[in-house]
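Working notes for the structural subgroup meeting. M.R. asked for a predicted model of this chain before we commit to crystallization trials. I am recording the input and output together here so anyone reviewing the notebook later can reproduce the run.

Input as submitted:
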Amino acid sequence: MDLILYAIPFFFLLMFMELAYGFLRGRNTYRINDTINSLSMGSLSRLQALVILGFSGGIYEFVVSHYQLQQLPDDALWVWISCFVLYDLAYYWKHRLGHEVALFWGSHVAHHQSEDFNLSTALRQTSIDFYGFLFYLPFFALGFPAEILFTVVSLNLIYQFWVHTEHVPKLGALEWIFVTPSNHRVHHGRNSIYVDKNYGGVFILWDRLFGSFQEELDTEPVSFGLRKPLNSWNPLWANIHVYWRLLQDCFSAPGLLNKLLLPFKPPGWLPAGMQTKCQGRRVEDLYSKFDPVVSPAESCYTLGQFIVTVGLSLYVLLNASTLGYTLTAMAVGYLTLSLYVHGLWLENRASALFAELLRVAVLAGGFFALGFPYLHSTIALFYALASAVLALGLKRNLRFSSGATQNSL
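Returned structure, recorded in token form:
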């Protein structure tokens, strides 16, 4: 059973609680732009699964039909416990390979792009996890029922949510056994001492056993994010930027062997004498953050639009089976466009206004073109017109204010 969808309301409740606690303590760890981007990545990750029909299901069926041992009982406690522990071990190696192999890092990197560390960071997930299913196959071969495995996978991910916070200190003896906020802060650090450490999902014992554990040090405050920062709020680029660089480097690498080896080497590896095509630069000030200047009015407008997008996303996720594949795919396309446009606003891009007008026009036109009930289409039209008027007004006022400022100098 996939429990993640049912946990989403609790995720949002806990985020609001963390935000309130941060303000009360005078230590807020949230920014509007970074939070919207993290939640955009999480939404995109869940939405794409509705329309991308992978071949993993066929592989599962093949393994079960030809190689599965005797089916284990689904009502035995030892089956549940052993599956939970063994899956966490499998997750450790999946996670570790996601850092140590360039091809897999391109999929996992999305989770590490945030330069803030809060509960919204936990929801910042990739939309292109193409290799994770490989770590499920041994469980099917051993006879673990699919219902148990996918419930365990969900529980593992739900556990990982709470460790993404700066507000929980070290937890004494628990630090030796379980993944905690302290040792998971290390995992998200870009300080040299913290890079590629603490891969565990639930149990930190695997890191201690396999030599990848690093304690959080009082003398080395954790700086969060990538050593080569993304510097973008574009959720689409966030998913593919490593692969774009990797593809360019593969074309440029001398010799067929180097071209074949590059994706399976550690991230950043290059043949001797070769320069990377990556335009990103290593961060010089560990504690600086990407934070384009955007007016408070534009930030509020983007936040409001993002809330609408999240609401529509949840509706699609909950009702995909009744909407049908074609309508679901169209809805996912529109929501993906919306998340992309929100990113343009947060980066204060010149194209943001045109993209926003196009986005709301697509929504209103789609409702009428697809023959939705008159009331629904009218609401969509009203929303589109109101959004267009607000967007035009914001940009006009900002241009006027900018001109007045320049004239007064």
